[in-house]
Automatic annotation (TrEMBL):
Keywords: Cell junction, Cell membrane, Gap junction, Membrane, Transmembrane, Transmembrane helix. It comes from Certhia brachydactyla. Pfam families: Connexin (PF00029). It is found in: Cell junction, Gap junction; Cell membrane. Residues 42-75 form the Connexin N-terminal domain. This is Gap junction protein. GO terms for biological process: cell-cell signaling.
Length: 219
């Protein structure tokens, strides 16, 4: 999978972000995207081939693997990375709309098309809410699909066509567990950063509106 588009998207959004937003971009790029590409993808690369059961009944191993791993951890992680980065496109599109509007009217309509204020502020806040919501959805999805944030060494399977309860062994469970905890930790960190940035922007805008009203009253 090529991650060039996602990298370019994050780099583009970085220009319009606040200080907290830039930290979020750094966390996503360095601690999630690079870790995924450099290490995590290889750990789950042969997870199906390395899943072994103590029986050679045709179809049993495949059915058990599908039951305990309905969706691959690594594919779900990739989908999460893509989905939580996608709302940032709203900001990029809004800035592009402002720039095209200025070109169409052939005059300066904004002090700075990339400045987060007015309609762009609303778009930015919506993107933060969507990113936070998607992070939470994927954390719940991980928890529900795998019965918690854990990878057991041994699972017992009694699903047909297995003739009885068989023992199945997961490869490199400790290594996978470490990366799973890392995934959850970085996801929680991103949620905290998104909520912090959301609170900061709302607080900043509220103070700005209050000062404007106060000045008008005095005038």
């Amino acid at each position: 999978m090529s991650w060039v588009f996602l990298r370019d998207l994050l780099s583009g959004v970085n220009k319009y972000s606040t200080g907290i937003g830039r930290i979020w971009v750094a966390v996503v790029f360095m601690f999630r995207l690079l870790v995924y590409v450099a290490a995590a993808e290889n750990i789950w690369k042969h997870e199906h081939d390395e899943f072994e059961c103590n029986i050679k009944q045709p179809g049993c191993e495949n059915v058990c693997f599908d039951h305990f791993f309905p969706v691959s951890h690594i594919r779900l992680w990739a989908l999460q990375l893509i989905m939580v980065s996608t709302p940032s496109l709203l900001v990029v599109f809004h800035v592009a709309y402002r720039e095209n509007r200025e070109k169409h009217h052939n005059k300066k309509l904004y002090k700075n098309p990339g400045k987060v204020d007015g309609g762009l502020l609303c778009t930015y806040l919506i993107s933060l809410i969507l990113k936070t919501g998607l992070e939470l959805v994927f954390l719940v999805l991980f928890y529900k699909l795998y019965n918690g944030f854990k990878i057991p060494r041994l699972v017992k399977c009694d699903i047909k066509p297995c003739p009885n309860t068989v023992d199945c062994y997961i490869s490199k469970p400790t290594e996978k567990m470490i990366f799973l905890y890392f995934l959850v930790a970085t996801s929680c960190l991103c949620i905290v950063l998104n909520l912090s940035e959301l609170s900061y922007l709302i607080f900043k805008y509220s103070i700005k509106c209050y000062l404007k009203r106060h000045v008008k009253k005095q005038q």
